Amino acid sequence: MAGTDMDPEVARGLFEEGATLVLLGVPEGTELGLDYKTWTLGPRFRGVKMIPPGLHFLHYCSTNSNEACGEIGPKTGRFLSLKPREVLVAHWNQSEDDLEFTRDPEEAERMRANLRELDGYLGPYPYDTLRKWVSLTDRLSQEVAIALQPLSGRVCAFSDVVPELKLTHTKDREEQNLPRNDRECRSMKEGLDRLPRMKLREGTELRFSNIPEQAYPPGSTPAQITQHSMDWSYALNCVLESHYKEQPLSILGELQFAFVCFLIGNVYEAFEHWKSLLALLCRSEEAMKERKDLYLGLIAVLYHQLGEIPPDFFVDIVSQNNFLTSTLQDFFQFASSPGVDSTLRKRAEKFKVHLTKKFRWDFDADLDECAPVVVELPEAVTVD
């Protein structure tokens, strides 16, 4: 866990003011990371020192030594808000394969008193990645992170699900008018119907903002429904009113939270929410005219986020159905409207040029031209 060369003044400041994570009993071979860096742990590891105060994301994958090849388990992450000189202690729970943080002030004080002896077992914070981490979370406050993370505090790559109904016996299934399990399935549908319906275990779900399914106000005329289907400002204002009334720009913190959970925490659900939130922001024309600061902030957030995704990733996921290009195409089109602030209009144009150069995306092309063409075949012709 060696850090890169650090300016002596910075090192001294972090040594005196930095927080310390004491992580005891973490098995050798565990993949553990803090923010943007990941390590495979050796036998001497006891934690991380010289951590800049602020919000951080601790993430880890345990190894199961009983499995062949020491199989790596699913990733778990936790957002931690660390104060200057804070000492935070966690112990590895072997039966749960997870870290348990103690809130015992006496133990923290004992560890603080022993930091000199522990020092050789603590790796320094990866200062070389700090700038990158800050650029991905500069809009994410401790309050927003706490409000969005699961009540359990754990951000898990795989959902923890339990059956909606406890159907232990055949009579339980009959009482719920469900197919019995002691008869042979006659169709795929019947087989699927027999599978238990699952739900997320309480306290494990990410608590993202609710994006309204109906993008228009109740009682809208057909013409108004059409208008709100093209300009999503009403739905965006609903989200801001419900969740970020006092600080509308905190919605950018949610966009960053979702991105970090996906990029570093491997949570696919967070990627889906990032897409939904991004589409909502990009397709709200009236909001763009009224909320200049929000959209200047959005450009800065996206600049850093898109800079961190590996280029080949777009081929695999983001470019499915041209999601990103079509969403940003709408954004750039709305940003060039006459009613948009000139500073925002110029910033959007520069961002468009930057993305066109970096990814070779053509935002001026008609995306419908790339759509598959349906060809009518004569009745006598079949396709093998």
From TrEMBL:
GO cellular component: spliceosomal complex
InterPro entries: AAR2, AAR2_C, AAR2_C_sf, Aar2_N, AAR2_N_sf
GO annotation terms (biological process): spliceosomal tri-snRNP complex assembly
Pfam family, one: AAR2_1st
Domain AAR2 N-terminal: start-end pairs: 17-149
Signal peptide: none
Domain AAR2 C-terminal: 208-364
Domain of life, per lineage: Eukaryota
Keywords: mRNA processing, mRNA splicing, Spliceosome
Function in brief: Component of the U5 snRNP complex that is required for spliceosome assembly and for pre-mRNA splicing.
Family label: Belongs to the AAR2 family.
Oligomeric and partner information: Interacts with PRPF8 (via RNase H homology domain). Component of a U5 snRNP complex that contains PRPF8.
Name of the molecule in the record: Protein AAR2 homolog
Organism: Sinocyclocheilus rhinocerous
